[in-house]
Amino acid sequence: MDMIKIYIARHGETTWNVEGRIQGRSDPGLSPKGHDQSLALLEQIKGKPISAIYTSTLQRSILTAQPIAKYFNLPIQKQSELDEIAFGILEGKLLHSFDEELKAEWDRFKDNRFTYRIPEAENYSDVANRVKPFVERLLRNHKGQEILIVGHRVVNRLLIGTLLECPLENVQKIEQTNDILSLIHI
Fold first, then answer.
1. Measured between alpha carbons, how far is 54 from 74 in angstroms, rounded to an integer?
2. What spatial distance separates the first Cα and last Cα of the chain, rounded to whole Å?
3. 178 vs 31, which has greater pLDDT?
4. Is the pLDDT of residue 1 over 70?
5. Which of 165, 77, 177, 181 is nearest to 128 (CA)?
C-alpha cells in the first residue's frame, strides 16, 4: 500500500492576527513574525522529499509557502477549496470590540458552528463539504508521496478531521496556531 505523508501548516501570523481582527476571506499580509514563521516552517520541512505544495488562494498562505516552494523549486498550487471559512459581516472586526448585535452573532456561531451561519458567511459544514473533494483528489493523486498544505485554522481543522475520519464535531479541539506543523500518514 502506498502511504501518503501530508504535512499541514497554518499560515504565518498576519497583521490582523496581531490586531485581533477576524480574517476569514479577507486578505491581510504577514506580520514580521509571520514572515519569520514561514522561514521556520522551511527549516522544519526542508529535509523532507516534498513533491507538491498546496495553499489557499489567500496571500497569507501563499506568502507562508513561498520560501518552501523556492527551496524545493515547486509551484504553489492554489486551491480555492482551502480558502478560510467566510465570516461574512464579522470580517475585519476586532474580536474583542463587538457591539451587542455582532457579539450575539458570534455567540450563536460558537454555540453551533456546524449549522449556524453568520450573515454572508459559511459554517463548518459548508467548509467540510468544500474540503472533502479536495481530500479525495489528494489521496488519489499523491500515493507514496509527501506533500505540504499551507492553510488556515478552520480549514485545517476540517482537513485533519476528514483525513483522520474523526467525528467532525470534534475538530474544534484540534489546535492550529500559526507555528504548528501537523503530519498525517495515510
1. 10
2. 10
3. 31
4. no
5. 165
